[in-house]
Amino acid sequence: MTADDRQITQLLKRWSAGDDAAFAVLAPLVYEELRKLARSAFRQERGGHTLQATAVVHEAYLQLVSASVDWDSRAHFYALAARMMRRILLNHANAKAAEKRGGDAVRVTFDEAIVRDKTNAEDVIDLDRALCQLAREDQRMADIVELHYFAGMTYKEAGKVLEVSEATAKRALRFGKAWIANYLERNAKSIP
After folding, report:
1. Alpha helices in the chain (DSSP H)
2. Is the pTM of this model over 0.70?
3. CB–CB of 150/119 below 8 Å?
4. What is the pLDDT of residues 48-68, one digit of tens each?
């Protein structure tokens, strides 16, 4: 754990204990980190999409600071941030699907660009379903894939946040992506 990781963990714990001064120091640190994660997740984004990285960061930040959570560590904070970003994107995708097709989402095969192309709402919904199923089978693998797609983290960054080795994170991300692709292909074929 680096000095920055320890500092954020200590500030999170102090803030959880009611120390408002700790939050004043913590807020700019985590907000900037969330912005970096969102920029990373959106860096291959096409123009014309309806959801901006800044909007996702602001919404996730507001939810995180208003959450009543007993923070264990920096990893706990960023894992929850990735989940919140995932929910925000999923809610946006569900709204777009409902608007576009009356809520009748069509399943498609997996493409890594689906999180970066938020204009394809059905794909985000399908990815969420696949991640939920993967979590039932292997929670750590699902967490690493979630951090990769929804927080824009590399396997090294996800491994660091989840406190697993780079090799473990790389393997989990590779297998997780393959598992999701297989899941989406199988389920797309089962729909008439």
Report:
1. 3-16, 20-42, 53-66, 74-101, 121-137, 139-151, 155-162, 166-189
2. no
3. no
4. 556 677 777 778 877 877 777
Output the pLDDT for position 44: 44
CA distance 111 to 113: 5
* 23: Cα within 13 Å, side-chain hemisphere: 12
- 81-116 per-position pLDDT tens digit: 888 887 887 777 777 766 665 444 444 444 455 444
Query: Encoding tokens for residue 91?
Result: 């809610």
Q: How many domains does the chain have?
A: 1
By residue range, what is the domain housing residue 85? 3-189
Buried b (16+ CB within 10 A) or exposed e, 170-181: bbbbeebbebbe
Q: Which amino acid is at 138?
A: D
Dihedral angle sign, alpha carbons of residues 73, 77, 83, 87: positive
Tokens of 171: 């393997």
Q: Looking at the predicted structure, is the pLDDT value of residue 31 above 60?
A: yes
First to last CA, the chain: 50
